[in-house]
Design goal:
Length: 137
């Protein structure tokens, strides 16, 4: 009985549980340089950690909401989701964001103004918050 309840209580680690600090720094830099326009890209992960920010031809940064054309995204299993910026202080997904989240990948980041280590949140494909650990490597 003991082993069973322990197993039940064990937190299940997500397939993607972290982001490399280097990748987060790049996201912060890119979001700041695009402001007040939005920045959008896809995310690549290795062994559970987001390692790379990948610009794709389907990613359009504009004055309006960033539109990520997921139909044009590469069918690359190491691409796990998207990152985009909000020029507002709210890192919460819009209806359009939720549409993208549910259509592509499983780990998505929104970084809000002022684009720092505290102003981003991560979501799963259902738009539910997930925690990502910042990993120094
Ligand atoms: Zn958005």
């Amino acid at each position: 009985m003991g082993w069973f309840s322990r197993k039940q209580a064990a937190p299940r680690r997500r397939a993607v549980w972290g982001i490399r600090r280097e990748a987060l720094d790049l996201i912060i830099e890119a979001a700041r340089s695009q402001h007040p326009r939005e920045f959008g890209a896809t995310l690549r992960a290795e062994r559970g950690v987001i390692t790379e920010v990948v610009l794709t031809p389907g990613t359009i940064a504009g004055d309006a909401h960033t539109f990520i054309n997921y139909h044009l995204l590469p069918t690359d299993p190491s691409i796990v989701g998207t990152i985009h910026s909000h020029p507002s202080p709210w890192a919460h997904p819009s209806d359009a964001d939720r549409q993208v989240f549910s259509s592509f990948g499983h780990t998505h980041i929104i970084i809000a103004h002022p684009y720092d280590e505290e102003s981003w949140l991560a979501y799963d494909h259902g738009g539910q918050r997930v925690e990502l650990e910042v990993v120094d490597e």
